[in-house]
Amino acid sequence: MNTNKGYVAFVGAGPGDIGLITNKGVECLKQAEVVLYDRLANPRLLRFTSKDCTFIYCGKLPNNHIMRQEKINETLVAEALKGKYVVRLKGGDPSVFGRVGEEAEAIAKYDIPFEIVPGVTSSIAASAYAGIPVTHRDYSTSFTIRTGHACKKNEASVHHEPKQSEAIGDTLAYYMGVKGLPGICESLIAQGKAGDTKVAVIEWATLGKQRVVEGTLTTIVEKVKEAKLGNPALTIIGDVVQLRSSIAWFEKKSFYQKKLLIAKSSSEESMLERYFTKNGAEAYSFPTFNSIAHSYTDEELQLIVNAERLIFASVEGVGYVFSQLFEAGYDLRDLPRQIEHLSDKTRKELEKRGVRGIKASYDKKSAIFIGDEQVIEKQAFSDNLLAFPSHTNQIDERFHEVNERLLTENQWETVIFPNKRSVDLFLQEWPTFSEKDPKELLFAAIGHSVQEYARKRGFSQKDEHVQLELDKQEWKRES
Questions:
Q1: What angle do CA 416, 257, 395 make, to 5 degrees?
Q2: Catalytic residue among 38, 170, 372, 463, which?
Q3: Is 71 a catalytic residue?
Q4: Sorting pLDDT into bands at 50, 70 and 90, what band is 363?
Q5: Is residue 321 classed exposed, middle or buried when 0-12, 13-18 and 19+ CB atoms within 10 A define those classes?
């Protein structure tokens, strides 16, 4: 990129489910040096960035603009003019009520190069996850997207009276229209829509906390009020809503609407978060770590290749050791014959590199044990065991805003503990972000000893449903 003006990528984050972001969007996040993100962009996507990337929360809430649009524009320009690769991460598609036009205009005034990366727009995704196709050959041959609220300049256009020749789509989708729902319904009825036209309002679409309320133009306002639905929410209006009764699929997932925290003790991706999210839960792994690699000396690398056995305690350790050995001129042929691992994840990481390891166990042969510096200790794998730290895990303070928001906005039900250290770290970090007593949460844990340790630390109520799923170990087979 031959410019001193940096670069800006306006990236559509999709509707919420992180699997719905595009590959190109992920690649932009991986390159990012600065990310400006909104409330509607799933903050879990920030994990795709590098360790050195800076996060800036724009935090726009209804009637509470933490960073006003003018300031967002100024920040985009300022960061790009420093020569940085800037990602503006927006929920849904940036061109659909995402104000990307205003932000791109601000960038263009300074001749800063930029691109717009489309995303899955929220109305289509929300409808799909609610079991409502926006078009259907028997019910709907057209689809209209409208805003549920507007700026003062265009306020009259939200509930305008159309001319007779002006088409009203068979299916209508209103974005962020909970507050304006009474006016929307009244206006549509005045325009000729029947009062019994079917309506669905979908809150937090595509996430485990998704809720759907159905009604008609004459009943939906009261039903939404009773359910206490709020933004972000999509309103879908039309005959296609009736298909929900037969093809709704997301609610049938085994952990739909279950709100789970996954306690973490390392920087590795949480397979538990992925598994339970796939099965319909709202799952969030906490806290977030950065791993800082240990730099081995030539002498240490020589000891590693000359060892009788290598025991890897983590995925990160495999990566750091192999990369440093390769840089120093070694390759697979120089590794010890006997290489062992503590977990299936580490085994799979070794296999990716062409190494077939075995499960670590006691052996009289000497061994070098490689893992996180903060937890590494001599274990019963050999009478002659050397401990070589591969890295240190540190709390990633960039996620403080995300943690505070998610831990207080969501009504979490259960915490899952993968190991004993995760219990200690969870209790250590929780008070930074929430005043609620964490021990009031239900809990589940991997292994009897971890369950007992959690009880010892004050957790008393086990979530039997989640515990049963952990004991079945299906999550291991899918990881």
A1: 40
A2: 38
A3: no
A4: confident
A5: buried
pLDDT at 378 over 80: no
**Better-scored residue on pLDDT, 204 or 371:** 204
Q: Which of 17, 170, 176, 420 is catalytic?
A: 176
Task: Give the whole-angstrom CA distance, residue 144 versus residue 134.
Answer: 9
pLDDT in the model for residue 149: 63
Helix residue spans in 328-396 (DSSP H): 344-352
334 is catalytic: no
Helix (H, G, I), strand (E, B) or coil at 370: strand
DSSP 96-156: SSS-HHHHHHHHHTTT--EEEE----HHHHHHHHTT--S-BTTTBS-EEEEESS--GGGGG
Beta strands in 166-308 (DSSP E): 171-175, 198-203, 211-216, 233-237, 259-263, 282-286, 289-293
Burial of 317 (0-12, 13-18, 19+ CB in 10 A): buried
Which is it for the CA torsion 425, 426, 430, 431, positive or negative? negative
Interatomic CA distance for residues 445 and 412, integer angstroms: 16
Which class for 190: exposed (0-12), middle (13-18), buried (19 or more C-beta within 10 A)? Answer: exposed
pLDDT digits (tens, 9 = 90+) for 154-169: 445 455 444 433 446 6
473: left (phi over 0), alpha (psi -120 to 50) or beta: left
Which amino acid is located at 253 in the chain?
K
The pLDDT tens digits for 166-186 are 446 689 999 988 999 999 999
Q: How far apart are CA 188 and CA 142, in angstroms?
A: 16
Residue indicated by tokens 């979530």? 463
Please check whether residue 262 is in contact with residue 284, taking contact to mean a CB–CB distance below 8 angstroms.
Answer: yes
Record the pTM. Answer: 0.87
52 is an active site residue: no
Is the omega angle on the peptide bond into residue 287 within 30 degrees of 0, that is, cis?
yes
Q: Which residues pair with 23 in a beta bridge?
A: none
Among residues 79, 17, 78, 90, the alpha carbon closest in space to that of 53 is found at: 79
Each residue's pLDDT tens digit, 45-89 = 999 999 999 999 997 655 555 788 899 999 999 999 999 999 999
Reading phi first (left if > 0) and then psi (alpha if -120 to 50, else beta), residue 172 is in beta
DSSP single-letter state for residue 280 = T
- Nearest residue to 445 (alpha-carbon basis) of 262, 182, 214: 262
pLDDT, tens digit, 9 for 90 and up, residues 314-357: 888 999 999 999 999 998 899 999 999 988 889 999 999 999 99
Could you tell me the CA-to-CA distances from 199 to 122, 238, 381, 446 in Å, in that order?
Answer: 17, 6, 63, 43
Contact between residue 177 and residue 217 where contact means Cβ atoms under 8 Å apart: no
